[in-house]
Each structure stands twice: as C-alpha cells, then as structure tokens.
Amino acid sequence: RGMRRAQNLLLLAASLCERAHLHVWDEPMNYIDVISRIQIEELLLQFRPTILFVEHDRAFCERTATRIVRM
The whole model's pTM is what? Predict the structure, then answer.
C-alpha cells in the first residue's frame, strides 16, 4: 500500500509538470494520505490546470472542480 501511494503521488506530480491543455486523472486520490491530499488541493486551487477527473471523494470534487457531472 505504501508503494502504491508513492506511485500515485509521483504520477500526479509528473502529470502537472507536463505542459498540457488537458490532464486526465482516474481516481487521483486513491491511496493518497491526508497531508498530500491537502497539498494537492492547494496546488490545484492556485495553479488551476484544466483537469478531467473521475473521483469518488465528493469533498475533493466540490473543493477543486469548477464543474461537476454526476453519473
């Protein structure tokens, strides 16, 4: 589980380092610890990249998304 968390954090960081018009994330908060979640949320709120993500964490979605589509 620790390795999975490290992999997810590395992939999220690598994604944001790339210049892209659109980032696509599939459940980015899986296996992410609370402190890292807070840091990611703060970064997203400051940086405001365009991201299409699927996430089950409603609180994360409501804090970071400008539009939400529920299915």
Answer: 0.75
**Helices marked H in 1-66:** 2-17, 34-47, 58-64
Cβ atoms of 11 and 40 closer than 8 Å: no
Q: For residue range 23-45, what is the model confidence (pLDDT) as tens digits?
A: 999 999 988 889 999 999 998 99
Maximum C-alpha span of the chain: 32
For residues 53 and 16, what is the distance between their CA atoms, to the nearest angstrom?
A: 13
CA-to-CA distance for 33 and 51, rounded, in angstroms?
Answer: 21
